[in-house]
Amino acid sequence: MLPEAGELPEILLDLAVPHESVNELVALRRRFDREPQWRWLLDRALSGLLHRPDEPGAAIGPGTPPVDDPLGRCFPVFVYLAALPHALAHHRRHGVDPEVSRRTLADLGWQIALHRGRHGRTGLSTPRWPSLHFRGELYQLGRLQFQRTVLTEKLAPLVTAAGAAPGPDAPALDLHIPDFLGPLSPDAVERSLELARVFFPRHYPQEDHQVAMCASWLLDPQLRAYLPADSNIVAFQRRFRPAPLDPEPDDEGPIRFVFGEVVPLSELPRRTTMERAIGDHLRSGGHWHFGRGWFPLRDGAGSLPV
User: Fold this and answer.
1) Nearest to 13 by CA among 1, 3, 24, 21
2) Beta-carbon neighbour count of residue 33 at 10 Å?
3) CA distance 107 to 132
4) 27 with 34: CB under 8 angstroms?
5) Is 4 exposed, middle or buried (0-12, 13-18, 19+ CB in 10 A)?
6) Which among 28, 37, 21 has a CA at the least distance from the CA of 3?
7) pLDDT by position in tens, the chain (length 306)
8) Beta carbons of 170 and 207 less than 8 angstroms apart
9) Integer CA distances (angstroms), 260 to 118, 185, 234, in order
10) 174 forms bridges with which residues in the sheet?
């Protein structure tokens, strides 16, 4: 399943892998032919990734082997390269447009670029994240990514009590917000939602996704104390019917998302409204929390209290 070294550059470029990483990955690919232990590990990891391929959430995503070796650091990338034919076959089987496939799977390249920007070398900071893309569980549709899943344990009672889903295991779409696709404007979000309302009934008609949900620090209502009332983030929050915040703080999440890495509070810059919001809140002794919310896909948005 793993592409030959000579085939790899074009495949990597199609997946938006940074040019700086292409030669390194091609050179590392050749080791799979010379060192059978890596091929054995690859086969095991690929088998886990493709475990029960038509069941969302069943994958055993590839981890990074605990060895101080460049191939170990890049190993998850090769697992996804080996899984690429399976991902494309799944998309074709469900009639997914090739352009949607391209944009969805190109998130692998962005994740490599993100790791390279933070650490100066090729790898994946969250090696299991692309398993959703390569199993057909997640799709890039405009500004947002949509993951096929079921209602989470924390949201299911709220959704079913509102009569918006038939039960706690009802299919739902989990919204993810890439940070590399420009502003999270209301128009861009609405366009993505309209695409999703057409895409999933067409390509996964057996799954009746009645609810969209999201879990993110961007849904922490404390942000409204720092951001303008007409900001994109506040508008995004207002789409959701809220669930209680996680009691445990999630300070590292917004720091990584906004600043790219965790640094001492005194060194966090204050160049933008969001940077000032995240840093000033922490410096004042506050904490950020993971927020959760949902809204019915077919009946429009909910509304958070001001």
Assistant:
1) 21
2) 12
3) 11
4) no
5) exposed
6) 28
7) 899 999 999 999 999 999 999 999 999 999 999 999 999 999 999 999 999 888 888 888 788 787 789 999 999 999 999 999 999 999 999 999 999 999 999 999 999 999 998 889 999 999 999 999 999 999 999 999 999 999 988 899 999 999 998 888 899 999 999 988 889 999 999 999 999 999 999 999 999 999 999 999 999 999 999 999 999 999 999 999 999 888 899 888 888 888 877 778 888 889 999 999 999 999 999 999 999 999 999 854 444 433
8) no
9) 7, 22, 22
10) 147, 213
- From CA 53, how far away is CA 18, in angstroms rounded? 29
**What tokens were used for 81?**
């390269």
Which three-class secondary structure state does DSSP give residue 141? strand
The b-or-e profile of 165-175 (16+ CB within 10 A means b, else e) is beeeebbbbbb
Side-chain half-sphere CA neighbours of 176 within 13 A = 19
Torsion of CA 89, 91, 96, 99, to 10 degrees: -90
Rounded to two decimals, the pTM is: 0.92
β-sheet bridge partners, residue 170: none
**Cβ atoms < 10 Å from Cβ of 36:** 9
DSSP 289: B
* Residue 265 one-letter amino acid: L
DSSP 303: -
Please, are residues 173 and 214 in contact by the beta-carbon 8 Å criterion?
no
Taking CA atoms, 158 is separated from 145, 163, 164, 242, in Å, by: 23, 9, 9, 9
- Token pair listed for 226: 């720092």
